Amino acid sequence: MNNKLNLEINKAKEALQNEPNGRLILSYRKKIWSAFGPCEMDEEKAIITKPLIKRLKLAFLCAEKVLPIWQEVYSDKYDALHILKYVKEYMDGLRSWERCYNMFNEFSARLTNLESGPLRPFAAGNCVSLVLGTALFDEEVDDEDEAYDKDDDEEDRDVDLWDASFAASVALSGLYWSDDDNDIEKRRDYWNWYLNEAVLIAAKA
Fold first, then answer.
1. Burial class (CB in 10 A: 0-12, 13-18, 19+), 120
2. Helices 80-91 & 97-112, crossing angle to 10 degrees?
3. Residue 150: its pLDDT value, please?
4. pTM of the complete model beyond 0.90
5. To 10 degrees, what angle do helices 50-74 and 80-91 make?
6. Is 119 in contact with 170 (CB distance < 8 Å)?
């Protein structure tokens, strides 16, 4: 693990410990994604590089953690495992970017129709979709000059701007601004897993 990533993980852990809602705000997540390395693009298409593979592995781990939440409610509507299989095949050169882009749009449209349904399975489905989105477009890595404590609250509140890790946190713990579904301890446990285990596994990808 490189020194920059270790530094970002430690800063994120401290921030998480002091966050009253048990959340890891987006600016810290971006710092970690950035520590894996730069994002390289060919117009809108992410170029497959080692940093992308690491960020994708991290997203994949998040999806695997919440996949049962989706499967319990919506397995009869769409097989999310099929999406994850497409991701692997794309990364192995067996699927074209264009075909996966079409699959991403198709699954995203299905999710839009589920927005009025139960929150947590919907969020789990979004997490799976965003794994494919990460493979296609990469994550929005951090501007090095961006402040650590910048609270990107508006992005986390907009479902269209979620990343896979945040979608997984919603699937496991609800919304941190909700009066009805907001499990702070489960959220903190999830982000501790993310920092202590998932990021380290992804760094080795």
1. buried
2. 160
3. 56
4. yes
5. 160
6. yes
**What pLDDT is attached to residue 146?**
58
Whole-angstrom distance, CA of residue 130 vs CA of residue 137: 10
Kindly give the parts of the chain with pLDDT less than 50.
Answer: none
Ordered alpha helix ranges (H), 75-196: 80-91, 97-112, 119-137, 153-157, 164-173, 184-193
Under 8 Å between Cβ of 24 and 194? yes
Q: Judge contact between 59 and 165, C-beta under 8 A.
A: yes
Cβ contacts of residue 132 below 8 Å, gap of 6+?
A: 83, 86, 87, 100, 103, 104, 107
Question: Which residues are CB-neighbours of 181 under 8 A, at least 6 positions away?
Answer: 119, 120, 174, 175
Are 113 and 122 contacting, i.e. CB atoms less than 8 angstroms apart? no
Give the model's pLDDT for residue 152. 60
Instruction: List the one residue out of 196, 177, 184, 156 whose CA is nearest residue 58.
Output: 196
pLDDT tens-digit profile of 78-108?
789 999 999 999 999 999 999 999 999 999 9
